[in-house]
Amino acid sequence: MKLYCLSGHPTLPCNVLKFKSTTIMLDCGLDMNSTLNFLPLPLVQSPRLSNLPGWSLKDGNAFLDKELKECSGHVFVDSVPEFCLPETELIDLSTVDVILISNYHCMMALPYITEHTGFTGTVYATEPSVQIGRLLMEELVNFIERVPKAQSASLWKNKDIQRLLPSPLKDAVEVSTWRRCYTMQEVNSALSKIQLVGYSQKIELFGAVQVTPLSSGYALGSSNWIIQSHYEKVSYVSGSSLLTTHPQPMDQASLKNSDVLILTGLTQIPTANPDSMVGEFCSNLALTVRNGGNVLVPCYPSGVIYDLLECLYQYIDSAGLSSIPFYFISPVANSSLEFSQIFAEWLCHNKQTKVYLPEPPFPHAELIQTNKLKHYPSIHGDFSNDFRQPCVVFTGHPSLRFGDVVHFMELWGKSSLNTVIFTEPDFSYLEALAPYQPLAMKCIYCPIDTRLNFIQVSKLLKEVQPLHVVCPEQYTQPPPAQSHRIDLMIDCQPPAMSYRRAEVLALPFKRRYEKIEIMPELADSLVPMEIKPGVSLATVSAVLHTKDNKHILQPPPRPAQPTGGKKRKRASDDIPDCKVLKPLLSGSIPVEQFVQTLEKHGFSDIKVEDTAKGHIVLLQEAETLIQIEEDSTHIICDNDEMLRVRLRDLVLKFLQKF
Amino acid sequence: MDPECSRLLPALCAVLADPRQPVADDTCLEKLLDWFTAVTEAGSSLLLLQENPCLVELLFHVLKSQDLSSRILSFSLRLAGIFAAQEDCFQYLQGELLPMLFGEVGPLGGAAWTAPAVRSGWIQGLRTLAQHPSALHFLAACGAVDTIFSLQGDPSLFVASAAGQLLVHILDLVMRGPAEGRRSPQACDWPACAQKIVGHIEDSLCSTDIPQVTQALSVLTTAFGHCHGLWTQGLWVRLSPLVARLLEKDPVPASHSLVDLLLSVARSAPSSDRDLWETLAQTLSHLSPTQAGPLALGILKLQDCFIHRLPKDRRDSWSSPAQSRAGFILRTCSAAFCHLPSGLTLWILGHPVPQVLRTQAFGILLQPLACVLEAAAQAPGPPGLLEGAAADSMMVDTLLSSKSACVGLLCCALAHLGLLQPLPQRPSPWPQAPLLGAAVTILRLCSGSAAPTSDVGGRLCAILVGCGRVQRAALDFLGALSQGTGPQELVTQVFSVLLEYLVSPESSSMVLKKAFQATLRWLLSSPKTPGCCDLDPHTQLFLRELLPVLQKRLCSPCWEVRDSVLEFLTQMTRHCGGQAGFRQALLASEVPELTKQLLRDPESYVRASAVTATGQLSSWGLCATPAIPECPGAQQESLLVELLHILSTDSEGFPRRAVMQVFTEWLRDGHADVAEDAERFVAGVLQAASRDLDWEVRAQGLELALVFLEQLLGQRGSHCPYAVALPETAPPGVLDQALQVLCRVQLFEFAFRALFDCDRPVAQKSCDLLLFLRAKAAPCGSSQEAGDSPNVASVEATLQRWQAGEQGQPLGYLEPGAVVALLRSIDLEGLRDTLAESSDHVEKSPQSLLQDMLAAVGVLGENEADCY
Fold it and tell me: Which UniProt keywords apply (chain B) (predicted)?
């Protein structure tokens, strides 16, 4: 059993598990941190961005000044943003049988895998994951395609040139594999390969293994997966949450008794409690708005935004913010808000019960109804007519490199009355803000990450008790900036196995058993013999029939009647030779009694020596040696076959035959 | 006993003796026992029984009846105890009744004994009864002591505890006689009963059964805590070797009880006892760090400071035997001693706790903190901290053994040191700087901002990070340390860690509250710049950083947080409102405006705090900047209007009460906007308050009215409640004018209405106010004429209706003359005396109790009849 680690990002995993002749890809997350090296794509012409000076080498050489621009001491690539794909060379991805998706954030690389690697398998995901994943992809494609950029920079990727660049460009890894965003056509094609599954549904893969999605409590339709055969169980835990937010709660019980638990997708900000962060978010939002400033919240169009809107629903009236407009701007804003209301079966119990009242499960429906929350596909069109300040704007993309957020950063960045509040934990907010410097607006970082923290993981592992834990290497040591925080790492026994990008792990357990069925007529013919209390044995002569990873013992064909040997046998009639088997022996030889028996039968001068594995009985007179070990007995004598047979028979007296 | 009660008693006894008529509740029986106790204390029990034979009949009946409830049986046992407490009555009952009640033939051997109430009643009965030598003989004769021994291990904790106390009581009773006048009698002289009890305690102390050891230790603790005869010294001499032997066991059994005992002995020991100090020292070193903490604190709290107040020549003339009881009394009243005038000479007993022992005890309290400091030290080397309390490996092991052990130990150490800090007998020199350092380090470990390099430090950090309990304890301790000084560098660190907690989103609301409290204490104790009454530069710098935090916290979605900020702001403004640095920083921030916005907060507690805070800010002229620069009063006036609006419309009581307090304070302090037209202000406020459903608002309205009265007519005189000075009368001219004003603001309508208020405190306050007014109005001569006018008659009629509960009709406009007449005609003194009685004084009478009990049974009887 092997694990091929195609992504080093702990929360955007992409691993391939080879297990019992199946090749299973676990998630295909797309690392978008690479986009932070690029200049933002403004929706409206930005004189500031277009007038940034080109970057030149220390010696004044300016051959890169078309590709690289400098802003407040940082260098950015002036090109269409590109993404860092999972490893494609470590394993032939066309051999992947299935892809299991955990949540909509972990499927963003799907088009790259399904459309460009010869992949012919099936993708399994829950319906909300697919629908919301589609929205995320659609938004991404839309953000990038609606601001076409003529220029494509590639010179800087040359290894010799990259070495000369300042950080972080200099340290960017595998830049040659970075790719532009996929197209909508590729998205549709990739999504068409998905087969929808429900929680606890058992899916057979070639008869060899069974995969089952379990609720992980992190997002709508988010799953952990159980991959099991008859005697082995691998659990794959991706983004999971134990907090009471909108999704169905996490199913922990089904993870028990795993041989291997692959653990990914823990919180990226273990020191920030989501509840505290929500409080911080509300306080800063209210403070800004009360002072007449605007609030910008860069966010994804689904996920935490639902919870934030719910908190604000409860908070705005009490904080006297009822008259402040809330805008949600995304090409998929409408679909996201509506989808959230129709996936009732995937929601937590409280929200499910609302559906039967009937009431919309999320209160943002009421915010929309009362015109407190308005949503628009983009800043163009209706929004520009309705727009009034001070206001709160939720919009993407959290990287601040594309999407409507770029416009608001340009618009509001100059005033210290305004505030940008980062709630998504995927990007470093300081790096995200780098191309907007100098910036007058206030920046607040309240990352809300509801995924498991290390205390919860520790409790979970104690509860489910896997034999082995496998996780990204980042989880096996404290964060580099807080090396003393030994509480911020996985602490389990035996220590967790760690992996990093492009590594292949041999998982630490051997398959010891395989289930084989016996045909009833064969079973009828068996005569078990009790060799010790509670243990019976029977010899079986049969033909092992294996098809679709199922093994069946069938009765051996009867020996062919001699038909005179005239007829030619067809190849398919070949039957295995059934030799007459000698009886099998069992039991152990008590040395003292054996020596007494030897003496009774006239052997004298007997010496017994203990060895590491058993005993040696020396018949000095007969110059013979009997080695008795746990699973073998050897009689070594000098060409005296009569003596050997006599001794053999004496040995056999102590053993059972069947 | 009054005749009416005597008349009711036979019926009640019949009810009690009747198993078919269950008594409604236990409280009636308890009240009945209280009443009998009072009656027997006031007179002869024997006479009582002779005059009311139904009582003895009841006791006999209880013994005979098989199906009486355990409550009645228990009651009877206790009742018999009350009667038999007087020796003559004891003799009267001893022949038959008492042995049957308390002896082996009584409930003791029967099925009723299984009820804990009966066992408890038996013990309490004996406890009350055992007051005289005859009782001792009775106890010995009926073998009660052995039963008490067995009841010490009773499954009911109340019974077990009462059994222990009874043993001590008997022991004290037995020993008081022979020990009196003799010093420390030898054990061999002790009476048999005492020998038996002490022997039992000795056996228990030697037992391997820990509960038995605990029982013995508790009995001894009670004995040394409550008995002050010299015999206790003898007892300690006899038992201390056995107690010391407990320390040889590992782990020390019943350590909590042992600590209690040793502290009890130490507090009661009349003279220095080297053995005791040695035992204490040994105990400190044998107990685990967690167990030793309370003992260490107890040792350090032992009083020995009064010895210094004695003139030296008097010390030599002490006579030990005579001092023992007085010593105890003085010790128990130690708190009062602190306030004794310095000239008063005290003679005192006891010797100081040896310094070595105090050092050892203090070391125990300091050790966990020393350990933390050492573990978190950035660089190795001699830390020079907490001298004599270097962290030992046992302490480190305890701290790291588990999260609960670490948290428990640190919280206890912090709490103990916090308690010790303000005491006069705290160790000296007090290691203020290391303790400050330790508190700061613990808080940093808890927040995760400390970066210890050592292995122990790392593990401590992992255990403590995010631990709210330790954070709260450390913040409390840090606040307590604000009373002392510290090096500037450390004080800077204190403010920095406090700011860290105030800023951190991870601080829970409780932690935040504690952080605000500690911050306030440190800010208020920070030194003033020499020659200037303003804040020192460090504090000003801190304030500048603090105010943005306050702004954010005022917008918190958590109401507890908003409330804490407002409380902090109120206190800060109250103390620093006049200081330029504070004023500048506050006015440059948005805090005043945000505070004002919270007057409309959805949470009533927050609204109340916002009212208090804005009131305080306004008093200092720190309210939100006027919206219209040309009209500086506009904003303030709007605040007054807004507060009046809250007073009239807020659905919750807290904000309305807060408004009344603010208004009273404004009126008292002469707030500019109030002083502008105080008459209109008072009229408006009283009108709103009179309609309020909350009695506290109405009472506060009277407080405001009184302030107004005092401003018009002069002070009430001394505020000392024990002063007998009568208020001075006002000159007639002033009085007439004042009465005119008071009539215009309708203060009398408000006060008279309050006089008949259904809530007693309101009526009392109103009564006081009117009495004050009457005293001021004494020389007014026009009263007689006014008193005869039809206006007065109709007002009196209205007031009578009000008194009867019909308060619908208004009083109408009152003339000053009519008011004075009314004040004279109403029996205010009588009313005051009636109001001074507790509201249930009628219902509390024994007669009422007996009637109620009979009535309750009567009702039950009717129901029973209905059933048939």
Answer: Cytoplasm, Repeat
Residues A424-434: tens digit of each pLDDT: 999 999 999 99
CA dist B54 to A545, B17, B47, Å?
A: 101, 10, 13
Q: What are phi and psi of B658, to 5 degrees?
A: -60, -40
For A67-78, how does the pLDDT look when each residue is reduced to its tens digit (9 = 90+)? Answer: 999 998 899 999
- Same structural domain for residues A353 and A484? no
* pLDDT winner (highest mean) among A259-268, A505-514, B684-693, B719-728: A259-268
Asked whether the beta carbons of A255 and A464 are under 8 A apart, the reply is yes
By C-alpha distance, the chain B residue nearest A318 is B602
Residue B140 phi, psi dihedral angles, 5° rounding: -65, -40
Percent of chain A at pLDDT exceeding 70: 97
Please give the structure tokens belonging to residue B599: 């007057």
Residue A310 forms contact with B (CB below 8 Å)? no
Average pLDDT for residues A125-149, to the nearest whole number? 95
- What is the structure's pLDDT at B721? 47
Three-class DSSP category at B568: helix
Q: What is the pLDDT of residue B778?
A: 66
Structural domains of chain B sorted by starting position, each given as residue range(s) with its CATH number in brackets: 424-624+638-659 (1.25.10.10)
Query: What CATH number did the domain enclosing A640 receive?
Result: 3.30.310
pLDDT in tens, A300-349: 999 999 999 999 998 888 888 889 999 999 999 999 999 999 988 999 99
SS3 B497: helix
Is the predicted pLDDT of residue A437 greater than 60, yes or no? yes
Distance of CA B324 to the CA centre of its chain: 30
Residue A581 banded pLDDT, cuts 50, 70, 90: low
Q: Are A305 and A258 in the same domain?
A: no
ipTM exceeding cut-off 0.85 for this assembly? no
User: CB of A271 within 8 Å of any CB in chain B?
Assistant: yes
Question: Nearest by CB to A291, which of B448, B556, B590?
Answer: B590
CA closest to A491 among chain B residues: B462
Domains: count for chain A: 3
Residues 6+ apart with CB under 8 A from A359: none
Minimum CA–CA partner of B449 in chain A: A482
Contact B439, B478 (CB under 8 A): yes
Integer angstrom CA distances of residue A436 from A412, B140, B332 = 11, 95, 72
Residue-number span of the structural domain to which A226 is assigned: 2-30+85-149+180-267+451-505
How many Å apart are CA B862 and CA A234, to the nearest integer? 75
Question: How far apart are alpha carbons A377 and A70 in whole angstroms?
Answer: 32
B458, B506, B601 member nearest A273 (Cβ): B506
Give the predicted TM-score (pTM) of the model. 0.81
Cβ of residue A32 closer than 8 Å to a chain B Cβ = no
* Residues A334 and A419 grouped into a single domain: yes
- Joined tokens for residue B354: 């040896």
Is A318 in the same domain as A345?
yes
Return the percent helix, strand and coil in chain B, to nearest 5: 70, 0, 30
* Residue B449 Cα, gap to closest chain A Cα (Å): 9
Task: List the CATH number of the domain containing A250.
Answer: 3.60.15.10
* CA distance readout (Å), A87 to A5, A6, A111, A503: 8, 5, 14, 10
pLDDT cut 90: percent of chain A above it: 66
List CB contacts (< 8 A) between B471 and chain A: none
pLDDT (0 to 100) of residue B331: 40
> Mean per-residue pLDDT for B687-692?
90
Quickly state the pLDDT bin for B632 (edges 50, 70, 90). Answer: very low
Kindly state whether residue A72 falls inside one of the protein's structural domains: no
pLDDT tens-digit readout, B380-394: 444 444 555 555 777
**Residues A103 and A220 both lie in one domain:** yes
